[in-house]
Amino acid sequence: MSSQRHVRPLSLSLVLKCLSIGANAICAGGVFTLPLLSPRLVSHLKFNQLQLTTIVLTGMVSQYPLAFVAGRTVDCYGPQTCSLIAAIFYCLSFGGISVEISRWSDELSYPPSSTFHLFVFYSLMAGFATVFSYYSSLFASSKTFPNYIGISSGASMALFGLSPLFLTTIATKWFTDDLVTLDPVKYMSFLAALTGTVHLAGALALKVPGQKATASNLECNLVLVDENTSLLHHLPDEPILRAATVRPGPIPPLKDPSFWMLALFCLFALGPAEMVISNIATIFLALPSRRPFPPSSTNSAARQVQLLSISNTAVRVITGLIADLVSPAASLVNGNAVFYRKHFISRVFFMTLPSLLLALTFLWTSVFARTQADVWVLSFGVGVGYGTIFTILPSIVSAIWGMDDLGGNFGILMNAPFAGTTIFSYLYALVSQAHTKADGMCIGSSCWQLTFWISAGTSLISLGLSVNLWQKWRGRL
Known about the structure:
The protein is mainly α and 477 residues long. The protein folds into 2 domains: 12-209, Up-down Bundle (Growth Hormone, Chain: A), CATH 1.20.1250.20; 253-473, Growth Hormone, Chain: A (Up-down Bundle), CATH 1.20.1250. Helices cover 70% and strands 1% of the residues. A two-stranded antiparallel ribbon has the order 1-2. β1 (331-333) and β2 (336-338) form a beta hairpin. InterPro entries: MFS_trans_sf. Its main location: membrane.
């Protein structure tokens, strides 16, 4: 009877933790819905394309500089601390955007420059919130279920990928006015309340078992132990503890040429993909509709965001399952790659294939996309390519450079797509601005045609880099 009384509260806490992990992940993608505000920001606040790109881009790229900090926060203080930080940032960002939009009327010719600067600041806060939220759900799931790390982390990433679809569906169904135009004030207020509440709950629910002992370690580098981990199993050899104490920190990968090649791959492949994600609304609206009476711009652009989200989410689940079957991840034991199941193909294949897909998608868009009905190819191709690469990266980093410093190494690597997103987003903005007419909107495929030609070229470079890495890592992945 006593053991049963002990199990019940533990099971309840596990259920609550799983619900909190899922809630954090599904509500974390608010920053990806900021492009839905673009039509209203042009008409309401008279922002131009460069300003719109800067606002959206800030939210996208600000996730990356703090990736290493968020990873170390999880290691040292637990995912619940990341969730608390995310709650604060979300309330500041989305609440601030709502207040700022409500201050100005449509009759205003041009808002003061401080309005644009405030939007950039709030977008920055949204990006900070996103990375802390993402790490809270990802590492809470993987550390709570260490024996099922592939399934647990994959499910968390899939829900995160589904978040833009979930939030844009809410936006289009419940936050549009009689003119079928998104009400940004009400929608941003809702996001502030939703994300703040969910992540505050996560600050209470996401404590990882065994975390206290880990946090007390000055290096925050020992392996986590929880209720599913045998404490006596490793005592005779002590391989886990010894690996954690003698393994170097996150600096050695920087001395490995392969790490820099992987970083360049991320820059050239993920940079253009995130440029599309952050600007899909204006890319879509630049083209004419085939219909004589087209639907509202908000709903049409939202469908592209939803398609990106669906394809991104589905491919993360599919890629994770297929990769585990045909190329099980290696475990780094005493510097040696060990496979515990039969291995059929290198995991780098799941970098090579999406690189080719992205190159073909960008080429097709440059040559054939001339109406809004053609943009679905771009949304689908980018969603699949982007989701596949991001799904496979953590297992590659852990297999090559070890699990102990995965958070730190992955955080360092994320500076590459940070740079790529910045470069390609401003390339898009400058090309679009050069073709913008007096009314403030760029119309026609010339708004982005050059950008996609260049993106196709860099995707082919990433394809070559992945083939080179495939050869270098033969037998290790």
